[in-house]
Design brief:
Length: 275
C-alpha cells in the first residue's frame, strides 16, 4: 500500500467511525473532566480567550465551537470530514451563524488571514499529510494569531487505561485499523519541528489528566469508548476482553476504584508576524 493509499484508507476509516457514532467524542469529553471540573474543551478554549474569529479543525459535532461561542467568540468556523458529525453541529442554536464545511484540513475553504485563532481537539494527531495541514493553518491564520492543539498522551502508569491497552493490544493487532496520523504530532519536539517550518513560534506544552477514578466497570466503559480499535472487534471478543480486564482490575483494587489515567497535552503557539 502506498503512502497515499494508506492516507485515504485512514481518512475513510475515521469518516465511517464518526458517521456511525456522531457525538461520541463530545459525550466522552463531557463525562471525563479534569479534577477541577473543566472539560478539555474548556481548557483548550481558554488558550484562545479573546479571539473573535476562530476556526476548529476537525470540529466534529461542534461542541468545542459551542464552548467558544458561549465565551464570546462571534466569527466561528469549522471543518470536518464526517457529515454525520456536522449534521449535529449545524443544528446547534449557538452555531447558527458559524461557517461549517464538510472539508479536509489539508485544503481549507477559507481566504488567507481569515482567523485570529485556530483550535484542534484530538484531531491533528490523526490527520495524514500533516505538513500540508500546518501550512494551510498558517495560511488562514493572521500573523500573530494563536494556534492551540490538544493531542493524546500515553496513559498514566498504573492506570486502568494502561491495563486495558496491555490486555487489548494482542486483539487489536489481529484487526489493525488503518495507519492514522503522524507520530511527530504527539510530542513536544515533533510538533515544534512541524510548526516551525510554517512560521510558528516555539510551543507552550501543558499536560492535563482527565477522568479521575472509577470502578473497574466504569473504567472499562471509558476504555471501550476511547479507542477506535474496539469498534473492529466482534461481540465475543469484547465480552472476553471485558472479563479479563475486570478480573485484573479487581485484583489490583480489591474491587474498589481505579484511576482512569487519560492524559492529554495542549500545545499553544503564535504565528510569527514575519513568515
Amino acid at each position: 500500500m502506498t503512502t497515499a493509499d494508506a492516507a485515504r484508507a485512514g481518512e475513510e476509516f475515521l469518516r465511517d467511525m464518526h458517521n456511525r457514532a456522531p457525538e461520541a467524542m463530545s459525550r466522552y469529553v463531557t463525562a471525563h473532566p479534569m479534577a477541577d471540573g473543566r472539560t478539555s474543551y474548556q481548557f483548550l478554549a481558554e488558550r484562545v480567550a479573546g479571539a473573535q474569529r476562530v476556526l476548529d479543525l476537525g470540529c466534529g459535532d461542534g461542541s468545542l465551537l459551542a464552548v467558544l461561542a458561549r465565551g464570546g467568540a462571534t466569527g466561528l468556523a469549522g471543518v470536518d470530514v464526517a457529515a454525520g458529525e456536522l449534521a449535529v453541529a449545524w443544528a446547534r442554536p449557538e452555531l447558527a451563524d458559524a461557517d461549517l464545511h464538510e472539508a479536509r484540513a489539508q485544503d481549507l475553504p477559507f481566504a488567507d488571514d481569515s482567523f485570529d485563532a485556530v483550535v484542534c481537539h484530538m484531531a491533528l494527531m490523526l490527520m495524514a499529510d500533516v505538513e500540508r495541514v500546518v501550512a494551510e493553518t498558517a495560511r488562514v491564520l493572521r500573523p500573530g494569531g494563536t494556534l492551540a492543539v490538544a493531542v493524546g498522551r500515553r496513559a498514566a502508569e498504573g492506570s486502568g487505561l494502561e491495563l486495558f491497552l496491555k490486555l487489548a493490544r494482542p486483539l487489536f493487532a489481529q484487526r489493525p485499523v488503518p495507519p492514522l496520523g503522524d507520530r511527530r504530532t504527539r510530542s513536544r519536539d515533533g510538533l515544534n519541528e512541524l510548526l516551525a517550518t510554517a512560521g510558528f513560534a516555539p510551543i507552550t506544552w501543558e499536560e492535563i489528566t482527565l477522568g479521575g477514578s472509577g470502578t473497574p466497570e466504569e473504567v472499562w466503559q471509558t476504555a471501550v469508548e476511547k479507542y477506535y480499535d474496539t469498534m473492529t472487534l466482534a461481540a465475543a471478543e469484547i465480552a472476553a476482553l471485558r472479563r479479563e480486564f475486570l478480573e485484573h482490575a479487581r485484583a489490583l483494587t480489591a474491587g474498589e476504584s481505579i484511576t482512569r489515567g487519560e492524559r492529554l497535552a495542549v500545545a499553544t503557539t503564535r504565528l510569527l508576524a514575519s513568515r
